[in-house]
Amino acid sequence: MRYWLAGAVGAVFLLCGCTNEGVNPIFNAAVEEVNPFGGDEAPVEPQQQLTRADVTRSDVATIRARLDGDETATYLLAAAKNGPYVTYSSALRQTITLVGSQVTETRGLGYDLLSAASSQPDPLTRPIPVANWPAGVTRSYEFPANSPKGRVESFTCRFEVGSRKEIVILGQRHSGIEVSEYCQGPTGSFENLHFADVSSGRVWRSLQWTGPRQGLVDVEIVLPYTGG
Amino acid sequence: MSKRHLRAGVAVIALASATAIGVVRSAPAQETIPRPSLTLYGTTGLIDMPSAQSQPDGQISLSYSQFGETARRNFTFQILPRLSGTLRYSSIENWGNREDPSYDLYDRSFDFQFQLLKEDRDGWQPAVAIGLRDFLGTGVYSSEYLVATKTILDDFTVTGGVGWGRLAGIGAAENPFCAISDSMCERENDFGEGGQPSVDTYFRGQDVGVFGGIEWRATDKFTLKAEYSSDVYSREQRGENAKFDRKSPFNFGAEYRWFEGVTLGAYYMYGDQIGFNVALSGNPNNPITPQDLGAGPLPINARDINAPQGTSWASNPAARDQLATALAEVLKSEGVVLEQFASDGRTAEVVIINRRFNQDPKAIGRTARVLTVAMPASVETFRITMVQDQLRTATTVISRSAMEEQVNRPNAGEESWETTTFEGAMPSLGADVWQRDAYPAFIWSVIPAPYLYLLTPDDPIRLGLNLEVGGTVQFGGGLSFTGQISQPLLNVPKDPGPSDSVLEHVRSDTPRYYADFEPKLAQLTLDYVTKLSEDIYARASVGQIERMFGGISGEVLWKPVEQNWGIGLELNYVAQRDFDDPFGFDYYDYQVATGHASFYWDTGFYGLQTEIDAGRYLAGDWGGTFRLTRRFANGWAVGAYFTKTDVTAEDFGEGSFDKGVSLEIPFRWTVPFETRSTNDIALTSISRDGGARLAVANRLYPTVRNFDRNWLYQNWGSFWQ
Predict the structure, then answer these.
(1) Is there a single domain that holds both residue B580 and residue B488?
(2) What is the pLDDT of residues A4-43, one digit of tens each?
(3) Closest partner residue to B16 among A74, A116, A225, by Cβ?
(4) A6: enclosing H helix or E strand
(5) Which residue, B396, B418, B438, sits at the end of a domain?
(6) Chain A residues whose beta carbon lies within 8 Å of the beta carbon of residue B446
(7) Are B451 and B401 in the same domain?
């Protein structure tokens, strides 16, 4: 892997040149990756696998997220709260903002979702027993555009209750039911998928669309936010 | 269950877990219309014949095509949704003339096409377009056309049109405009030095030709084409040594979209030749890598309603300096340099340099977010002043309360725009200010600089590479000393000797200044930039100002931040440098006073910006330059200019007057991380001496234009990113 990365870094150097006026951190990281003098550094301890006990002990609201197509998921910890919006941040400061279990913002994942809103009642934003879920909701998404106002895409969505299942999120077993959500709008269509507790309606895991280019993000609620 | 709040500090619990996901499903879908294909002329269309379709707005294509003895290098830009333009540089072997039957023709041509009607894909209405081909050149491809195109069954398009000039080679009918006037039946195709609009030939001629064809998009990647061409290529066959022998009006082709942005085509042309086409396409609006990858912005927490509101910390210099030092550290991690900091406890005033973000509102937003975290609760207003190339530009005034109310909410961009104000930055913050201890600062750079010359006599196309090593010492307060040495690396020309221009050789000897392997002193100047008032900027430079001239240069610019236009005045007294001596001025022994009054206007219409310069040029000629540039919010810019002076077309030489096309590609567009670097490409015509302007590296308007309200509006979407 180092050879192609070295080639890429070389190409970047060739094309953009170099200066002492601040090369960006990702570029620096790439240089570090191929740095032939890096071998003298102390060996790094193998990364410790996060456990349920770790999360419970930290008592910090935590989600686990993964873009559709990515092999690994990343843990994000609650870092900010504004009204119903809770922003979770990863170690690399990529952020996902949730209202309940609804993804309303992403930053740093590739293609930002500026904001999202839905008609109420929306069982993603406030838990509703699955039997009482509305037939559907409307959702609107705001993406970056060349003006203060983002580009807004709106969709009409309908829920379709599926089969009962059990899932495990970081060692904790949840029983619930799968609910598919089919969304259609003037710019296209997509499908979300949720796993909800039947009685409380809390959505523990959800595959949600975050934009035409970024696609789906798989969000698992490891430790829910229960603050005020 | 305990109340779980927010993470404290930046402690990282852990990353990564390759948990298998059992619920993955398909999802995103966005319907798109396939991009129309290109002709061997680089324009939208069939094979040699145009169609009425348009490329997506802003689409840029570079293509090279060849068949027989004809090769074309094309640059096409979809200037506006309905208007496209093409700059073409062609070579035709064995064109022949009286003196030399083997004479090869090198020809530059310009096209425009305007879509009169958009296609109704659900109804019957076809797209209809009108076009001018080679309307400004020497007339080799001079023709006009009216064309219609209709898509059938999504994958199949049918095109038909009528053409004048070269496209009436096979006359199908009498030119209907002959009914208006007999003069409409006459057409002269000899345009001398070229470069003049040949208005008196448009839509003229005895006959009109009829052309048409079909295109079948067999798969997403594979397209088949067939056309009937009304171009008889008579001149290409006339040369004594010409090998092209047109036998049929029919052309056939197959095109393969190798991957997004690269299309390869093979053709059977006029029953005689095999041809090919390679087209590279890109769109400023569609970066080729993810643009939002990396560290996101700092999350914002609203201030506690009971937070202490005391301001005594602001009057304590030690506390202020401690705060400013910490703030500088955090901003540094964002790629933002804190130059100055001041506060009265209610307002935080920061002066920053954006070193990372391609879009300045993103740097403003990131800075404001850091301030929400770092500033005591008493601070309600953030005043963020941007410094660009040592010039204080605009001050953005942000309400902290408004930010706290807007963050995370839908439509936060528009609401933040409404609550944010902009002012011209004051020349200084005053006395009680924390100042970054950084001066004198040394900045160096090593940059490969490819260059492209077109149509230089005896050397029609030259692509070369220089290595440019630069260094600047900033003394603070706007004073700096800059040196730049250019080392020729690849395809280095030999000294071609003096040009045959009858004017002072202020530009026509340009190749001499790039010749041979000796390093060249491209710049060595002492520069001073300052603000005379909130809206007035000033610059003075002395030294070797550019590769060909040294002397003194002064400039003043009036450009209020809230205004979409500005006025500048530049005066220079310079002498022509020796091409073979970095400090010599003897060879040409030529001095000139040159300068311009300039009017700059950002139209706000599709990013179109205009610049009009009037004054005296390097050869002592008087005249004006008009420049029109479309700037995209992400930094792409495509521009064209022309200069008319009192130099006659004969004295000017080939091209008649100076004109050219320029392209700026932000490096950010091609990489998934933030950078402010750009690649500048000038597709200029022959370097001639008329209408030549001094090349000043740090002109004021390019330095400050990204900091007016109009431009910030277009980029404000990045404020929350």
Answers:
(1) yes
(2) 444 544 554 455 556 665 444 444 544 444 443 334 444 4
(3) A74
(4) helix A2-16
(5) B438
(6) 17-19
(7) no
